[in-house]
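Issue 218. Parser rejects a valid record. Input:
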Amino acid sequence: MKTSTRSIAVLSLAVAATVLTGCAAAVVGGAAAAGGMVATDRRSSATQLADQAIELRASSAINDALGDKRGHVSVTSYYRKVLVTGEVATQEARQRAGAAVAATPDVASVINELAVMPESSLKQRSEDTLVTGRVKAKLIDANGVPSNSIKVVTERGTVYLMGRLTEREEALATEVARTTPGVQRVVRIIDRISEQAALHPNDASGQTPAPAPVTTVPSSGAAATPTAPAVEVHPVTQPTVIQQPPVEVRPLPPVK
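Output the parser choked on:
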């Protein structure tokens, strides 16, 4: 494992960017999240703007749906696939939040990862922000990983990777995330693309391809478990609230 001035500088910048992003993003509660730079993002400008608009509208819809029972809820959109994370007080609130997002214009699919439990502490959210910064820094430092085309969200130690990647890039990004200190679990919300498509990344048409399955892997040193929280991505034409069907769990070999 190498440590360098460059890595430390990158980590500092990533953490700072994450904090600024969290302050500026339109979220109800705010998870630790970091996105890619526009110049190297594989999304077209139209899709990036659509994702930003979806986050604003979906967050507002959740506020309207939950009112003073909104809890701590964060909304992240990538290629119109919307990840909802955080904590709410009741199962009903979870379902209402998911339904509000599903009804938001332009949403392709909803990954409802809200937990019914007390809100996370400030300490936990600060740790999540640091984990996001570490993952982003390691992605930037890793060869062969299009770091600015990967959105990273961390909630209670679970790292969500969102993006459009080749099989090779997905494996590299997963390995980076799962071996990062503080990461308990990695959930991939990735659309798999070909190596050829990676050479011409921008979706100039502005159209979103059908979402790919979401997969979950344990962090370094953790054992695979079939009872890990489950998520599913529905077809673009059917934005629906996810009701926790089975998820594919791929254990990776131990880190040497």
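Fixed in the parser; the record now loads. Strands lie at 32-34, 72-78, 81-88, 109-116, 150-155, 158-165, 185-192, 214-218, 248-249.
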